[in-house]
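Records of this kind hold a single protein each, on a pair of labelled lines. With that in mind, the following record should read easily:
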Amino acid sequence: MSKENSGEKNTGRKVWRGLLVLCALALAGGAAYRLTRPEEAVETTPLPTVSVTRPEIASIGIETSLIGQMVPGDLYYVTPKAAGEIREIYVEQGDFVEEGDPICEIDNQKQIDAAKISLDSAQVSVDTYQDSVATAKTNLDRMAALLNTGDISSQTYEQTKAAYDQAAAGLEGAKLQLEAAQLQYDTQVEYATVTAPVSGKIESESMEINALAAQSTQLCVISGDSAKKVQFGVTDRLLPAFSLGETIRVEKQGETYEGTISSISTMVSAASGLYPLEATVADNGAIPAGASVKVYFTSEKAEDVLTVPTDAIYYDGGKNYVYTVSEISKEELSDTGSGTVATVMEGNTPAEVHKIEVETGLSDGERTEIRSGISQEDTVILTWTNQLYEGAQVQVLSAGAESEASEE
């Protein structure tokens, strides 16, 4: 073997030895790294958090509003009882009067004078008959004495007694005429002053000094001091919603007053085509008569029914749904499928979501009637998350945490 060949072989062996050493060192380094590197942390993902509630038994009513008009509780149209000129006026529109207070003075002196003449004539007639009775009584007593002595016949006595009886009857008739004349005179004097028939407010008055007031002339209108009324009309569809004594609300300029249905008509008004209703309103005089007000009443209601918050109901494909949860253990938490582990915050409860179709009824905006689908024992989800679907896993917010959140 030549020296050249021998040198090439030695060089090749050195190269291979170097490569083997490098491989050994690489293997040793990798093993050392695996033994000394820190353990990788496991990634976690918290489950979606939801708030829940239980269905409640409650009553639901749908409120409807209409326009009504305030009217006085009782109206009295004051007219004079005797015709004559108006001499004095004691009240103005807006005044409050007590029963018996003067309204105005009517000049009916002619009627008073005529009544006085009749009264005086009746008095003269009474005086005349009294004299006649006194004379007839004297004659009757004298004839009675003569009859006892036999100086006159019984026929003559009977004639005298008949004259006395006639005079006495005439006196009684004259007295009755005197009483009637006195009453007529007193009435005409009383009619001269027109007085308030009731206590209340002068809603309107149309009197003028020296104006002639006939017995049919309306002098003023008084509203009694009883509670005011609101009048409104309803359609035949809404009429069954009302009953006597039912409570309504009346609103005017932001103030609300309570009212009670006092009259329900079953005949349609020819003017409006609606059924007229009335309700008394305790407004303490705050709403003027004739003012337009809003009338609120319950047009539909469902009592003692199963309800949930309206926000807990969702709509999909023309159907109504609620999401409920059933509690699960932490061991039942499923793999997220992305190499992470689902976790639940301390105090919260892991649960599984169920999408339940329900039949709904009345809704007042805050709560909705549930007619079928769930019971009072179910737990309904209140909060929305895009991770709500059948079989999804969530964590239910603890009662304490929910309370703190609401306070904040």
About this structure: The longest strand covers residues 292-309.
